[in-house]
Each structure stands twice: as structure tokens, then as C-alpha cells.
Amino acid sequence: MGCLKTSNSRTDSEPPPTTTPSSGGAPQEAASEEEDPLKRELEAKNREVIDLKDKYLRSVADFRNLQERTKRDIDSARNFAISRFARDLIESVDNLDRALSMVNPASISSSPPSSETPTPASTSSSPSSSSVDGEVNPELNNLYQGLKMTESILMSTLKKHGLERFDPAVQGEKFDPNLHDAAFMTKVEGKEDGTVFETIQKGFLLNGRVVRFME
Known about the structure:
Low-confidence stretches: 1-10, 110-133
Mean pLDDT: 74
Largest sheet: 3 strands, antiparallel
Strand order of the largest sheet: 1-2-3
Shape: elongated
Helix content: 55-70%
Structural class: mainly alpha
Oligomer: single chain
Distance between the termini: 139 Å
């Protein structure tokens, strides 16, 4: 019995058999090592695609902005190319307006002059017959009507090219610092504060832009 006990103790003291790792894990580790470079390359390509797409969108936006700026510049150049010519022409329009303002329309008859030549007898008997017939200063009347027609045609032509004259005193408009230049301020009966009641110099607009302020 003692020998058997000694034999069992030796068996219990022996170390457990060691297990060797299976050779099947080696291919999996090698495959994972091969997939990592491919994954990194794919991620790099994705980042490159995103970056190129962002650059493309920015380029398209810049090109559209350039198109809009170019269009605005072309429109501005076309609309205001005659601004210098318009400023010079305004002086001629002012002179024509001054010439018309020197004549009182009430003192001029609008009826055309008579083609009949008055006889000496009729002239001596009715010295004021020309006034009665409405033939007061026929030469002056013709000149005035010609100037009015010239002004009307001129202003119509200028309006076709975007140049317009404005006078706020005609309609009793409110003072607008963007269009008007106040020379003085005073109280006027029947007028509200800030109302334009007299015009010293008429204003002009070229395609909505002030060429000369009204004064």
C-alpha cells in the first residue's frame, strides 16, 4: 500500500502537459496585416475625393460670382457710359429752359397769325384790332412755340437714353436728401414742413442715378 501511495504522489506532482498553439491562427493574422494597408489606402482615396469635390464646388461658386460681377460691370458701363456727355448736355437744356421762362405765355396768343394783309383803312379805324383777333406778337409767338417744341423733342430723346429731369416743386414733394440740395429753409403758409416750394435748379437722373441734385 505504501508503494501505491508513493506512485500516486509522483503522478500528482508532475506538471500538466503544455498545449502548443494551433497552426491555424497564422493565416488570419497575415490576412489582417494585408487588409490594413488596403483600408488605409481606401480611406486616403475617400479623403482625396472629398477634398476634390470641395475644390470643385468652390471653383463653381467663384465662377458664378465672377459672371455676376462681370454682368453688373457691363450693365453699369452701358447704362452710365454717357454720364459725362449727359452732364455737359444739361447746361444746354438749362439754357433752353431759361429762354422759355423769360417769356410770359399769357402775353402770347396761341392762334396762328392771319395770312391776310390789313388795309390802311382798317388799320387806322381799329388800331387794336390785332389784339382783338389774338395776333399779338406773331413772331414772338412762333419763336416761343418753336422753342417749346424743341424742348419737348429734346427731353423725349434724352428720356429714351435714360436721362430724365425732375422738379419736386411742381407737385410739392417732400425734401429728399438723396435727390435734393436745400438752398434755404423758411416758413410758407399752406405748406407742411419739409415741402419743396421753389426750385432754383432742376435735377437730373441717369437710369435712376443722380447726375445733378435739384437745388
